[in-house]
Write a structure and sequence with these properties.
Blueprint (H helix, E strand, L loop, with lengths): L2 H25 L5 H5 L3 H8 L1 H6 L4 H4 L11 H7 L11 E7 L12 E6 L5 H8 L20 E6 L3 E5 L9 H13 L3 E9 L6 H12 L4 E6 L6 H18 L8 E2 L8 H11 L9
Bound molecules: guanosine-5'-diphosphate (GDP).
The site of guanosine-5'-diphosphate has 18 residues, from helix 7.
Length: 288
């Protein structure tokens, strides 16, 4: 090796710790709210309240259209809600069973929330992120889109059940009608349906079918906008405003506030945990 090559190699080696540090920061996720609270205020607000942060970019006129304060918990409430999603000796979070028909679904007394959305919308990733404080819970992510043909039930301690519904848009409507429609129409302890929309592409035709179904059955549902880390801020703002307009003008049962999330950066995940704890009656906040 020449002296020059040696110097170059040594230089690169010396740069390694700094590069690793950068990589570590870039890959770091903020799964617990305590970690979020240690961040500088601006970054903390962006992770905790992504919709409010987006709203700040808008002109005063457009700002009026976004319902950012319908659910407005305190930072303390968001911290408290985390215990519901954390495995402890007294709070077991576990996968219960899967079912292809409603009469095979577990009969539980707890309130239930379900997640529906097109294949590839980011449903499994979102459920994984929500359950990241219970890492022993296995959320199966199917490799092939549309492969999850079952309803998967997860028990969150004595608090509530989470149901991961099969993705639609692939081989639907047969699977959808057989399983999802019957479930949505007949599940008695279903408290809230979370309908996932990919924020990159907005509401698609199959999403409209699912929205129509929720409206027809007069279900209370909530729109969650996934993958918000993937778009530029301008694109995201455009999508959010379009979807908000749609919710305001075309829906009855949809909760007025949108929940933008990223399962990669954990933006919006803590707020969503708090919302779920709240609507299932496990956290009393003044925020709703
Ligand atoms: P599902 O079919 O709805 O369960 O979707 P998955 O959770 O399997 O996600 C589909 C693809 O989108 C996968 O490649 C994920 O890694 C990716 N994905 C999911 N959520 C996010 C997110 O918040 N941000 C980014 N950048 N990618 C995501």
């Amino acid at each position: 090796m020449t002296a020059r090559a040696l110097r170059l190699a040594t230089g690169k080696l010396l740069e390694l710790p700094a590069a690793l540090g950068r990589l570590n920061r870039a890959c770091r996720t903020f799964q617990t709210f305590a970690e979020v609270l240690r961040l500088p205020t601006r970054q903390m607000m962006k992770l905790a309240f992504p919709l409010q942060e987006l709203q700040r970019q808008l002109t005063p006129d457009s700002r009026l259209h976004l319902h950012v304060k319908t659910f407005d918990p305190s930072l303390e409430d968001i911290s408290k809600a985390e215990s519901v999603f954390t495995t402890t000796g007294r709070n077991r979070i576990e996968y219960l069973s899967s079912a292809v028909r409603l009469d095979h679904a577990p009969d539980l007394p707890h309130p239930e929330v379900c997640f529906i959305g097109r294949s590839n919308v980011g449903k499994s990733s979102l459920i994984k992120a929500l359950f990241s404080l219970a890492p022993e819970v296995e959320v199966r992510v199917s490799k092939k889109p549309g492969h999850t043909k079952k309803m998967n039930f997860f028990k969150v301690g004595k608090y509530f059940t989470v149901v991961d519904m099969p993705g639609y848009g692939y081989r639907a409507p047969e699977d959808f009608v057989d399983m999802v429609e019957t479930y949505l129409k007949e599940r008695r302890n279903l408290m809230r349906t979370f309908l996932l929309v990919d924020s990159v592409v907005g509401i698609q035709k199959t999403d409209s079918i699912a929205i129509g179904m929720c409206e027809e059955f007069a279900l209370p549902y909530v729109m969650v906008l996934t993958k918000i880390d993937k778009s530029s801020r301008g694109h995201l703002l455009k999508q959010v405003l379009q979807i908000q307009k749609f919710v305001d003008s075309e829906t009855q049962g949809c909760f007025p506030q949108l929940f933008p999330v990223s399962s990669v950066t954990y933006s919006g995940i803590h707020l969503l945990r708090c919302f779920i704890a709240n609507i299932t009656g496990n956290l009393k906040t003044d925020g709703l």
